[in-house]
Amino acid sequence: MFTVVIIMALGIIVGYFLRNKSKTKSFIEKLTMVVIFALLFVLGVAIGSDKNIVSSLQTLGLQALIISLGAIFGSVLLAWWAYVAIFKKRK
Amino acid sequence: MLGSLIILLFFIIGTLVGYYDILPFDLQNYDADKYTLYLLMFLVGISIGSNKQSLSIIKKINWKMVIIPLITIVGTFLGVTVSALFISGISIYDIWAIGAGHGYYSLSSIYISSIRGEALGAIALLSNIIRELFTLVFTPVLVRYFGKIAPISSGGATSMDTTLPIISKYSGSDYALISVFHGTVLTVLVPIIVTFFANLNS
Hints:
The complex is a heterodimer. By secondary structure, chain A is an all-alpha fold. Chain A has helices at 2-17, 22-48, 51-55, 57-87. Chain A has two domains: 22-54; 56-91. In chain A, 87% of the residues lie in helices and 0% in strands. Chain B is mainly α. Chain B has one domain. Chain B has ten helices and no strands. In chain B, helix 6 (105-116) runs antiparallel to helix 7 (118-146), helix 6 (105-116) packs parallel to helix 10 (176-200) and helix 7 (118-146) runs parallel beside helix 9. The longest helix of chain B is centred in the middle third of the chain and has 29 residues, at 118-146. Chain B starts with a helix and ends with a helix. The model of chain B has no long low-confidence stretch (mean pLDDT 88). Chains A and B meet through helix 1, helix 2, helix 3 and helix 4 of A and helix 1, helix 2, helix 4, helix 5 and helix 6 of B.
């Protein structure tokens, strides 16, 4: 966990020095997409080679959907309250 | 939208490759996921650091901006706790860990699969992709019925990049700055919160 935070902090510092290099920035953006594709592919391979997971993919998908709906509506309802109680008043 | 569908496609291709055992070597022996994740985090850091808006955002920070990421996190935890009532066989800590991904599927799924196993990693991936897709599709509806902050909270960590254009369009450009700040804070916090909850159960 700390490794990742440190790596990210290093990236932020490096990024700060690259902020005026638009060519490098667009290359980084493309590279990020490629790395995300690679990451998802690797995860896919790990999941696909596990026959137990593949056979229960439907159940896993349903559970994922239930968790997403909770996460979305929990945050949306609280955001609604914040908008009405805090943000709308100043205008 | 297209981006997340392509990502889903890569995942599906990976699953097929794994299922039919096409690769001549075993990726897991090389810690491929760990190093790819490190590289990704470094690149995400660069994009945060090189964002010229970041500096102007820092100057404009006020308590109202700071409170929104907090609202998203608390709302998400309350919401997934309700979800847990309808799910059997997964512990509440794991459900919190999955919810704590806040739409950041690449990172949270790798983390959860390495700490808690591939099945939970798959749920984390799907659940967080659904959150991003939902926000992309339903932002107009969310703004109309739940106000201008709703799509930012729903988008979670993605409110700084993939869902930003649609949020900016429907909540207004004065909320774009809030959206970038919110997404950046969550992007930094997600690895910390996810690992915290994932470790509680392992």
